[in-house]
Amino acid sequence: MKRTFQNDQGTIEALNGERISRFICLQSRDDDSGRLHPCIFLLKTAEGARWHRFYLDAGICCWDEYDQLPQDDFADPESYPWVDLGPAHQLNGLRITSIGVTPHLTGVRLALTVSDGRTVEICTRHPEDDTRIAIDSCELKM
Fold this sequence. Notes:
The protein has one helix and twelve strands; from the N terminus they run βββββββαβββββ. Strand 3 (20-29) and strand 4 (36-45) form a beta hairpin. Helices cover 3% and strands 52% of the residues. By secondary structure, the chain is mostly beta strands. The strands form two sheets. The chain has a six-stranded antiparallel β-sheet with strand order 1-6-5-4-3-7. A six-stranded antiparallel β-sheet has the order 2-8-9-10-11-12, with no helix packed on it. It is globular and about 40 Å long.
């Protein structure tokens, strides 16, 4: 594992121009309501050999690279179910045009823009907030 980014603002330029081949979202289940919330994201591009794993926590974005898909993330599928956002939202094959991280209220926002003009927005509103995800301003219900 190699940590490549840990901040509340900046850009991830290494993936610009690469095509999405997998975009997995792991979810956590709220103990009280049973509702699912996105928590960890795994991204693989067609051109790249590495997996990119990122998440928002305590008002920052943490971005790591792995040589292989981090299998530990899939150890408890009942508590942490996952969905592949690529085929579910027609993202596979699209080129990444930008990835930017900015402060959002007192939380953090990651915006990943793809070649068809859509933006995948992943954000928290404050440091203890659950992560939210939207594609072109339509919040996904997990």
